[in-house]
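tl;dr need the bound structure. longer version: we got a ligand (iron/sulfur cluster) that a collaborator sent over and nobodys looked at where it sits. i said id run it. heres the input, straight from their email, havent touched it
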Amino acid sequence: MWKITVDEKCTGCAECVDSCPGEVYELREGKAVPVNTDECHGCHTCEAVCDDDACHVEEEE
Ligand code: SF4
Ligand code: SF4
């Protein structure tokens, strides 16, 4: 399981929404929200494309 968080630095640029292969994120009210976390396979693409270091993917037990 992967734990996905988006912090207050999110600018709503949608790079993570557009680049996530699992379509994990949706843009809601100008912020990225992880909605399909079951589809995450831990590729870390979202973190790589986020210029604001706002999304975080951590492995969960
Ligand atoms: S890439 Fe980063 S700043 Fe852009 S919408 Fe996603 S979390 Fe927010
Ligand atoms: S780690 Fe990969 S699959 Fe998981 S939310 Fe980020 S881009 Fe999507």
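gonna send this back to them w/ a short note. The chain has one domain: 2-59.
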